[in-house]
Every structure is written in structure tokens, then in C-alpha cells.
């Protein structure tokens, strides 16, 4: 018998001063049995960084043709395509052809470095694609967030990658355009 997805409910308060976007989001995340807590939390961080009323979670691990997050206009045009991990460059090339902007979040710095070494030349040629590597925060900082119902604290200082820093060591991220590889750990 196949394992079922675990459903998580999240109340997320987004205050993005750079984009002047302020909203509360009631989200329902389904974690695939093969998905780790860390990957699910990176999906949530990516949602918070690109929050928009039209931003939706894709089928992710279940469907290779869909991104982890995407924003579609009413006419079906894909404005934003967000994917996690180290996707195949052919998949990214296809995404760049369909979407106005493509963002890749890698969350395992060593694997990202190897991925970039293997595919860096091909990835550098993709226009409209941005790469972000989230360094993994200490496990106690994120493992407690993955309870099945979670509410973001109202006054929450955030590091560039979006990890709350309340009592935890700060983590960092570096956004790079295609000319440079994601940062090494």
C-alpha cells in the first residue's frame, strides 16, 4: 500500500517592505512521503519571498512538468516559476521558455556546488533564471516548525533566506545571477 501525503496547515503573515506587499496567507501544504521536512520548509520560505495572491503550490515531486511554486495570470501566462533542488538544465530551459522569470532554490550547498560544476556553462546561458542557495539552519531551528499546524510569529526578524532567527543561529543565502555559481558552504 502506498504511503499518503501528510497535510500541514500554515498561517503565514507576510510583510515585504521591498515590494510593499502585506498579507496573511492561510496555506495547506501536502508533504509527499519522499519529501523531507527541510524541503517542505524551503518551499514555505520560497512562498514567503515571492508571496502574491496568485502564487500557488505545484504538484512538485509528483509531477515533473510543474514547478514547486508558480504564479499564473488569468489568461494562463506563467509569470513566475519556482523550483527547488538541482533540476535538470533541460527542464530549466523549458521553464525559461514558458515563464517570465524562473527562480531555483537549492538547499543542500554541497550538492548545489557539484550540480553547478557539472552544468554551470549550460545554466549560465539561461536568460531570466536566478539561483539562490539556502544554507541549512541548525536542525532544532526548523524541525519544530514542521508541526502539522504552524503560525508565523508576528514580529519575526528574517534572514535573507527567510529563516526566522528567534534564538537560532543566523543562516545566510546569496542570490546569484547565472554568471556565478551558487555560493559554496
Give the secondary structure arrangement, pairings included.
Layout: E1 6-16, E2 21-31, H1 37-49, E3 55-57, E4 69-72, E5 78-84, H2 89-98, E6 99-106, H3 109-124, E7 129-134, H4 139-143, E8 149-151, E9 173-176
Parallel strand pairs: 1-8, 5-6, 6-7
Antiparallel strand pairs: 1-2, 3-4, 4-5, 7-9
Structure description:
With 185 residues, the chain is α/β, with parallel strands linked by helices. It has one domain: Roll (Restriction endonuclease-like alpha-beta roll fold). The chain is 24% helix and 31% strand. It has four helices and nine strands. The strands form two sheets. A six-stranded mixed β-sheet has the order 3-4-5-6-7-9. About 15% of the residues have low confidence.
The N- to C-terminal Cα distance equals 39 Å
Structural class: alpha/beta
CATH class: Alpha Beta
Principal-axis shape? globular
What is the C-alpha radius of gyration, as a whole number of Å? 16 Å
Task: Note the main attributes of this structure.
three-stranded mixed beta sheet; Restriction endonuclease-like alpha-beta roll fold; 185 residues; alpha/beta; 4 helices
Amino acid at each position: 500500500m502506498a504511503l499518503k501525503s501528510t497535510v500541514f496547515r500554515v498561517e503565514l503573515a507576510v510583510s515585504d517592505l521591498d515590494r510593499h506587499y502585506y498579507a496573511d496567507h492561510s496555506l495547506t501544504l501536502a508533504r509527499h512521503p519522499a519529501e523531507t521536512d527541510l524541503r517542505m520548509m524551503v518551499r514555505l520560505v520560497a512562498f514567503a519571498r515571492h508571496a502574491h495572491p496568485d502564487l500557488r503550490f505545484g504538484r512538485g515531486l509528483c509531477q515533473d512538468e510543474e514547478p514547486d511554486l508558480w504564479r499564473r495570470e488569468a489568461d494562463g501566462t506563467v509569470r513566475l516559476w519556482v523550483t527547488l533542488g538541482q533540476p535538470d538544465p533541460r527542464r530549466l530551459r523549458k521553464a525559461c521558455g514558458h515563464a517570465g522569470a524562473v527562480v531555483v532554490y537549492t538547499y543542500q550547498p554541497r550538492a548545489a556546488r557539484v550540480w553547478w560544476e557539472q552544468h554551470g556553462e549550460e545554466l549560465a546561458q539561461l536568460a531570466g533564471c536566478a539561483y539562490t542557495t539556502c544554507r541549512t539552519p541548525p536542525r532544532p531551528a526548523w524541525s519544530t516548525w514542521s508541526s502539522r499546524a504552524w503560525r508565523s510569529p508576528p514580529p519575526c526578524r528574517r534572514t535573507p533566506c527567510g529563516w526566522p532567527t528567534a534564538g537560532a543561529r543566523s543562516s545566510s543565502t546569496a542570490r546569484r545571477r547565472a554568471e556565478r555559481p551558487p555560493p559554496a558552504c
